[in-house]
Amino acid sequence: MTNTKREKLTGCVPHQEDVANKIVGRDAYIERLKNGETVVFGEPGNSMDPIIKHRQKCVYAPVGDPGLLERGQVVFCKVGPFHYTHMIKQIRHESGEWMFLICRRDGRENGWTPLSNVYGRVIEVLPTSVTQKQIDVILRDYNAHLPQAAANVSEKPSALLKREKAKKSSGRGRKL
Predict the structure, then answer these.
(1) Cβ neighbours around 46 below 10 Å, total
(2) pTM of the full predicted structure?
(3) pLDDT digits (tens, 9 = 90+) for 28-78
(4) Which of 23, 61, 91, 130 could be disulfide-bonded to 18 (CB atoms 3.0-4.6 Å)?
């Protein structure tokens, strides 16, 4: 199956290094979040409508510190055997472990999950009209602190400054 067919079926575009390592789709995004990278992808379903629509692209940042998470925040996590982009309804600390109650937008609960199963937090919901080229620029901006991302930047500093000014004036999406 080619990347374009996989993209159409799953809505996930595998990262080039992930394809070489045979990690694709949701597993690739989880690995990249665990490695401290910011990722962009769209989850299927309408459980978060009107905040996030079906397959609407979102920017997910790695979690790491439980202090970054709070009630009402939208996260990408695993509850039981299922993966969700849902909200945190409650937080508790028991037996030395942080636990999060995950729910849909309407309040229906999915269950409790530990911090180790909370992979990323939604930091921006992108407009439905976003292009892959725009997503690449967004990811490059968010992942600029990573050595491999900085090595791949081929634009001249003046082009980066022009893009930053244009981005500030246009406002590309909703920040969460």
Answers:
(1) 12
(2) 0.71
(3) 999 999 999 999 999 999 999 999 999 999 999 999 889 889 999 999 999
(4) 23
